[in-house]
TrEMBL record:
One of its GO terms (molecular function) is iron ion binding. Gene3D superfamilies: q2cbj1_9rhob like domain (2.60.120.620). InterPro entries: Chlorin_enz (IPR010092), Phytyl_CoA_dOase-like (IPR008775). This is Chlorinating enzyme. Pfam families: PhyH.
Amino acid sequence: MTSSTERTNIALSADELASFHKNGYIGPLTIYSPDEMDQIWKTVRREALDRSHAAYPEVDSGIGAPNIFNYDRHLDIELLAEHVCNRRIVDRVASILGPDLLCWRTEFFPKYPGDEGTDWHQADTFANASGKPQLLWPGESEDDFGAGTLTVWTAFTESTRENGCLQIIPGSQNKMNYDETKHMDYNEGRINSEVKDGVPRGFFGYDYRQLQVDPHWRPNEEDAVSLTMEKGQCVIFWSTLMHASLPNTATGKNYRMGFASRYVPTKVRIYPDTDHIEEYGGSISLENWAAVLARGEDRFQHNKITSKTLKGTPIRPA
Ligand SMILES: O=C(O)CCC(=O)C(=O)O
Ligand SMILES: [Fe+2]
């Protein structure tokens, strides 16, 4: 296959794009074969234990705990830097956001047997936990409804209903049911303690219901779709789409590991007037943070961009 045919094949088709605009998500899409994914995850899992070059090395929390110290490991782990620039991902994201793309955040989302599901939520400015907008689209003021970010959630292990797959409500991306300027209080003791509409769920120590615009509203769970995925598949969705996950009710070693990469076009301002973030009971300095130009070029220069990992290896945009 020539590279030009491959490029045409990787972009979203007209039908896929139409479906994305209607439903707010597209997928599952295959990025890696299950064997390739196994190999990548095996290496990443081992390398993640070495935090000596991590952007936020303060606390050794391992990748068992979803918290801010596990943000942005693509900045020090080469395979993750390659993942966020993978053409199978970024060419599809470019079909939606345009050719010039920044990856501004990655996060591990593990669910181990016994873990609660993730609360239903939507994120637009990402002020949800930190209290301060983390994204500002051109022309958007801090209180407006903006466009959020595109999240590419890749199943690093198989993701099933039993081990806590992602759920979404198709078409819910254009109306925010949550007000990110409201406050949520963090309480570690809340983890694994609540059942919401019959499902054990929480938001990693927060209760996302605290942000509801209407405290009496309930998500329409009958409309929810459970996104089961083979390892190596991903789903692309607006962060403003209603999303959640099921609890992991499996036993033994059946954990699911999601890896979320978040993209915006280069015109967006990331972390405006912010030098640190406080979320999930921790605080990190953004001194080592930089966006990665994952595709195309940066004609705006609004944001700090790095072309190397924190270990000094080159990062090559697609
Ligand atoms: O994996 C999960 O449970 C939640 C993922 C999520 O909220 C996200 O990727 O934005
Ligand atoms: Fe989310």
